[in-house]
Amino acid sequence: MDPIISIEDLVFQYKREDLVPEEPAVDHVSLQFRPGSFNAIIGRNGSGKSTLAKNINGLLIPTAGWVYVKGWDTKDPDKIWEIRQSAGMVFQNPDNQLVSSIVEDDVAFGPENLGVEPGEIRRRVDESLYAVNMYEERKKAPHLLSGGQKQRIAIAGVVAMRPECIIFDEPTAMLDPHGRQEVMDIIQKLHKEGITIVLITHFMEEAAKAERVIIMDKGKVMLDGPPKDIFSRVEEIRSMDLDVPFAVDLADRLRSRGIPVPADMITDEEMVDFLCQYKSRI
Asked: What CATH number does the domain containing 182 carry?
C-alpha cells in the first residue's frame, strides 16, 4: 500500500529578522505514514515536531528535501488546496480556529471554501457534528462552549472537508483533563473509521494509545516504532529530558523492588490488571 504521506530528507530552517538562517528546526527527516494508521510524534519544546506537522500540511515549505501528500509535492502551489483537503490540521488553541458566531456555520466554512454544493454541505455539517457529539450544540455561539467543546467543533470543521488524514498539533495542550479525554476519544473514533492520524503531543499517555510512536529531538528522529518497543527504552527517553507514561514509570519502580512486572506494560489499564492479579497470588 502506497503511503499517504511521504517525507524525504526534509530540512526546514527558520530565518531571523536579518534573514540569516537558524539551525535547522527539522534536520534531514525521512518518514512515511500508511493510510489508516495512528501515529504519535513526541518531543520536548523545540524538538521540531510542530514544524514537521506544518510542513506536512503545506503551511511551511521545505528548505530542502520533499514532502508528498498522496503523491502531491507540497512545493507545488497548484496542488496546495488538494493537499490541505487531504491532510487537514487541528491546532493547539481552538479559539484561533473558530471563524463564525454560530457552531454549524463554523463547521460549514471549510466545505464552502472548497466549493461544495449547499445540500452536500448541510449533510457534511450534520454528520461531522454527530461524529464529535456536538450536534445538539449546533445553534450555539462557540464562545459559550468549554475548551474541550470548542476543540471538538474545530475537529468537526476539518472532518467536514472529508480529509483522509488529520494532523493534530498538540490539540489537548490547553485543555483540562476532562477536555483532553473528550478530544482523545474523538481522535480514537476517527482512527477506527479509517482516517490516518498524526498526533503531535507532549502527553505520554496519549502517545501510548497510538500504533506508532516517533520521538524527535533537535530536529531529528531519535526513536521510531510501536509504543511497547519505544517506551521500554526508559533511560534513553529520559536522557532526552522526556517523561514516560505513568504506568511505565511505575513498572520501572516496581521492577527495581523485585516485582516481576512485564516489560511491555505501558497503559494504566494494563497496570491495574497486573496489580490485581499479582495481589491475588500473594
From this structure: 3.40.50.300
CA distance 270 to 254: 14
Instruction: Give the C-alpha distances (Å, rounded to integers) separating 229 from 74, 196, 255.
Output: 32, 21, 17
Global pTM reads 0.89
User: Would you call 93 helix, strand, or coil by DSSP?
Assistant: coil
Of 3, 64, 55, the closest CA to residue 34 belongs to: 3
Give the tens place of pLDDT for each residue, 85-115.
899 999 989 888 898 999 999 999 999 988 8
Q: Residue holding cell 495512528?
A: 38
| Domain of 232, in residue numbers | 5-244
Query: Per the domain annotation, does 119 fall within a domain?
Result: yes
Beta bridge partners of 216: 221
Tell me which DSSP letter residue 202 carries.
S
| pLDDT digit string, tens, across residues 124-149 | 999 999 989 899 999 999 989 999 99
Element (H, E) at 26: strand 26-33
Q: Are strands 212-217 and 220-225 parallel, antiparallel or unpaired?
A: antiparallel
Residues 6+ apart with CB under 8 A from 164: 4, 35, 70, 86, 87, 195, 196
Sheet containing strand 72-73, strands side by side: 26-33, 5-12, 64-69, 72-73
C-alpha cell at 100: 463564525
Count of the separate structural domains present in the chain: 1
Report the candidate in 143, 144, 141, 151 with the shortest Cα–Cα distance to residue 104: 141
Q: What is the DSSP letter of 270?
A: H
Question: Within a domain: residue 50?
Answer: yes
Pairing mode of beta strands 64-69, 72-73: antiparallel
